[in-house]
Every structure is written in C-alpha cells, then in structure tokens.
What we know:
Helix content: 55-70%
Structural class: alpha+beta
Number of strands: 12
Strand order of the largest sheet: 2-1-5-4-3
Amino acid sequence: MPLQHQGEHSTIDKTADSAYGRPVGWFGGLSGKLLWLTVLFIMLAEVLIFFPSIATMRIRWLEDRLNTAAAAAIVIDGLQPVELPHTLQKETLEATGTKAIVLRKEGTSRLLAMSDMPTSVDEQYDLTKTTLLSSMDDALDTMLFGGKRMIRVYGPVGETSTGVEVVMKDKALRTAMFAYARNVLYLSVLISLFTATLIFFAINRILIRPIRELTGSMQKFSAEPENPQNVFVGDGGRDELAVAGRHLTSMQMELQKTLKQQKNLAALGLAVSKINHDMRNILASAQLMSDRLVSVDDPMVKSFAPKLLRTIDRAVGYTNEVLSYGQASESAPRRRRIRLYDLTQDVRDMLAIDPQSGVEFAEQMPVDVEVDADNEQLFRVIHNLCRNALQALMMPGETGMDGVKRITVSAQRVGSVVSIIVDDTGPGMPVKARQNLFTAFRGSARSGGTGLGLTIARELVLAHGGTIALVEKPTAGTQFRIEIPDRPVSLDDYRSRLHAEK
C-alpha cells in the first residue's frame, strides 16, 4: 500500500508539473529577472550620469593644462626684456603639451613661446563662457570627431584679470577622455553587479522564498487535500505575503472541512439509498394493513383511519423523494388551487401536539384563501417550519413569551401573491444558525440537527417562484415569511375562463 500511495502521488506531481510547469531555478525565476533588470537599470542610470561627468572631466583636463601653461607664462614674462632662447621655448611647450602660449595682460596679448605654430586652428574654447549643455556637446564632439584637430583654449589665471591662451592638439585630450570613459564603464559594471547581487539575495530572502513556500504548499495540498499536514503554516509576519499565507491557511482548512462534509454526505447518501429501499417495502406493507382498517366497524378507528392513511401516503412519498434530493433534484411542482386553511389543519394533525405540553396552535387566515401551489410540497414547507417551532418550544426550561407557548400560522392574499407567516413565541434562532441559514448541515438551530429541513423548504419555495426569509421581530421567537405568486395565466386559459363565466 505505501508503494502504491507513493506512486499515485508521483503521478499527481508529474501531472501538476506538466499542467502548471515546474518552478525554475534562481536565475530563471523572478529573482533572476530582478537581477538582470537591476544591472540594466543601473547601467542606464550610469549612462545618464556619464555625459555630465565626461564633460566635467574634459573641463578639468583643459584647466590643468591652462594652469601649467600659466605658471610657465608667468616665469617667462618675468624674464622680460630678455627673450627666452628657442630651445628653452621648445622644451617649455613640450612640457605643457602645447604648440603656443599667449599671455593676455592689461588688454594686450603677448606670444611667450611658440613651436611649429599651425597656420589655422579647427576649434576655439573659452572656459570663461562654458555652460553644462555646451560642455557636454563639446565633450561628445571631441570623442566622436577629435584626435587630429588643432584647438585654441583660453582661460583666466587664478582670480586675476590676467588670462592665458594655448594652442594644442586634441589627441591627448581625446585619449584621456576615452581612458576616463573606460574606467567609468568598469566601475559602473562593478557597482551594478554588486548592487544587483545584494538585491538578488534580499529579494530571494524576503519575497521569492515565501512565494516558493506558498507554491509548494499549494502543490502538496492539491495532491492530497485531505491530509491536515499539507495545510500551510506561516511564520506569523505582518507583511503582505504573511497575510496571504494566513488567508491560504484559512482557505485550505475550510476546503478540508467542506471535503469532509462532502465525503460524509456521499456516505450518508449511500446509506439512505439502502435504507430507503427497505423502508419503502415496510411502508407499503403498512399501507396495505391500513387499508383494511377502513372496513372496521368502529367509530374511533374510522375517525383515525383516513389520517393514518394520509400519513403513510406522505411517508411513502418522502421515501421516494429522498434519492431525488441526494441527486440534487426535486420534482417540478404540480400546482393547483388549494385551500390553505385545510392544509394548515393537516399540519396541525401531523404535529400531534400533546395537550399536556401547553403548546397552542393557531390559524389566522380567511377560511377561503387559496394558494396556487403543489399541495404536498407546500405541506412539507409549512410542516417543517411548524415542527422546528414546536421543537424549540418543547426545549427544557422554555416557558415562551409571557408564559405562552404558541405557534401561529397566518396568511393573506395581496393581488396575485399569497403571504404565509409562521410565527412562534420560542427562544428565537441562535446566531450561528442565522449566519448559516438555509445551508445544509450548518443551519441547524438545535443540537443534533442537520439543517436539511430549511434547505429543502427553500428549494421547494424557489421552485414555486416564491421567496422565504427570516423576519426580524421585536419580541422573542422566530418568524418566517413565505410569499408564493400565482402562475401567469396564458391568453387561451384567460379567454376560456371568460367564456365559461358568460
């Protein structure tokens, strides 16, 4: 048996995996997607930061060259009127990486050093007039098209009004910019991977692992829902996943309870079907013997024989309808006009209230009020409600409202609708029964009850197109209202009635 049980579960697991898919690994699931998305988003953020950063780096590089050239220019200018030898000028220009150095002082410009001065320059940059957007545009232009151009750069010397101007090639600047960009790329990749890894493990710890536990619990529960050990047990947290876990636990427990009730109901249906067969034979024999009582010449027997026969007929009818309820189907109402007062009298006789019990049964309705309904089905509805009321009044210690124990059945016709009220002076319906009203096996108002009576009553009333409801009342007791409308009359029937009346 254990091997067979294990084989069944493996088959169920394979079926579930084929139907819903087996959970993927870390890098193929949500955490893996979050990892790659985090890397991508950080790289996009670095790209947005890169352009202002490379522009700033370019300005700083040019400012360093200008400061170096300014220092040399101030020294050379201090040697005036001595002219700097050509060899020393060349060495100074090579040290500063420039082709010419011009000092602007007191409104005049003076060429201090020059070597291989070009005839023209390709671009000119004034560092005193740069903006963020213009510097970003110049940096992008240098990286894309620079490397072989001659540029002229001007900038101030410290905080003074003196300025220095240099002429130089942009090859060294472009090389430095690419080296900086490469370093930024490496650093961005490292930062993104490090951040993504931290987020990856954090998401796995906080989100993915609880989701996997929820998924695993669902799979185990779906494979064997009746096993209490497969109910999900959360960690008692307060976040959204913990709340979802508690809801899952509640749902699984309710489902197990429902499955248990369905299993018991199936077993009960099988037992009832077996008992029903034997009970029908016994009632048939009792019906035959009761028929003989009619011929007995005894006034007492003759007065009770018709009631006994009706009771046995109804019992036979109930046994025939037990299986119909088990199959979730009731026979369609065979509706006709019946006097409600006579039906209520049959209910009184069926209840057989003991005069010593002190329970009164009262009818408050016109004698001639008629209802368009199935006689047997409406009898079952009213009898069930009156029987529940009688059981409530007969409970130990129950004295009734103002010491009176009474069941009242009242009715009135309003247009094409007949309203029937069954009222009692009992203790009233418990809260649990109110919450599960008309629910089989849960709506019983007394210990040991099944709650089927009200469920069947509701089905029968709805089959008539009517309604049944529990009415709130200011005094103690229970009150149900039943409303049954007449059947719509076809045009042919209406014309036939008019013709018959004429």
